[in-house]
Automatic annotation (TrEMBL):
Segments of the chain annotated as binding DNA: 33-52
Keyword line: DNA-binding, Transcription, Transcription regulation
Residue ranges of domain HTH tetR-type in the record: 10-70
Gene3D superfamilies recorded: Homeodomain-like (1.10.10.60), Tetracycline Repressor, domain 2 (1.10.357.10)
An MF annotation (GO) of this entry: DNA binding
Record-given protein name: TetR family transcriptional regulator
Superkingdom in the source lineage: Bacteria
InterPro entries linked to this entry: Homeodomain-like_sf, HTH_TetR, Tet_transcr_reg_TetR-rel_C_sf
Database matches in PANTHER family: TRANSCRIPTIONAL REGULATORY PROTEIN
């Protein structure tokens, strides 16, 4: 029986985390077994337990990696669009697109892990990682005048509903109507 080099072990761990990050967003944490995850990257289940103490530890690491990818995506929007307001608008366009709806495995971890987070206990490393990621996303979405949490909640709710109704006219309507509501110019408050 040959030993795996330290470099190969690190590469195996990186591959497991990357695969888990994608598969958990696609199928849910309970929708993918350790055996299926390891098979997807050509490794054995025994190799998993050499790398991770538990599936929960992998979930925390996979969520952290997914939010790291989101941070890179948000930074790329800032770079590509020059100013943050334009970048935020472009992100809304992307977020509420059929492309994002149809690719949950590479999509936003806020939406991708939401169902699992709602069903799991509200303590521990996974919850803390998820909450921190949501807060960072909301901070990026915020403006001088508005907290970003309502925008994130609206985006995530819309994409979850659009995914749940994919293949129907309602799915398209959810994306379109939410986009219209979020990008319409704000009307002055008649009470002001």
């Amino acid at each position: 029986m040959s030993r795996v080099s330290q470099a190969q072990a690190l590469e195996n761990r990186r591959r497991a985390v990357a695969a888990a990050s994608q598969l958990f967003r696609e199928r849910g944490v309970n929708g993918i077994s350790v055996a299926d995850l390891m098979k997807s990257i050509g490794l054995t289940t025994g190799g998993f337990y050499k790398q991770f103490p538990s599936k929960e530890a992998l979930v925390a690491e996979a969520a952290q990696a997914a939010f790291g990818d989101l941070d890179l995506l948000l930074a790329s929007f800032d770079t590509a669009h020059g100013d943050h307001d334009t970048a935020r608008g472009a992100l809304v366009d992307f977020y509420l697109s059929a492309e994002h709806r149809d690719q949950p495995g590479t999509g936003c971890p806020t939406a991708g892990f939401a169902g699992d987070m709602a069903r799991e206990s509200t303590t521990g490393e996974v919850c803390e990682t998820y909450a921190a990621g949501v807060e960072e996303f909301a901070a990026w979405m915020s403006t001088d005048a508005e907290d970003g949490l309502p925008m994130v909640a609206t985006l995530v709710g819309a994409i979850l509903l659009a995914r749940a109704t994919a293949g129907t006219e309602l799915s398209e309507k959810i994306l379109e109507s939410t986009h219209k509501a979020l990008t319409a110019p704000h009307r002055p408050d008649p009470e002001s």
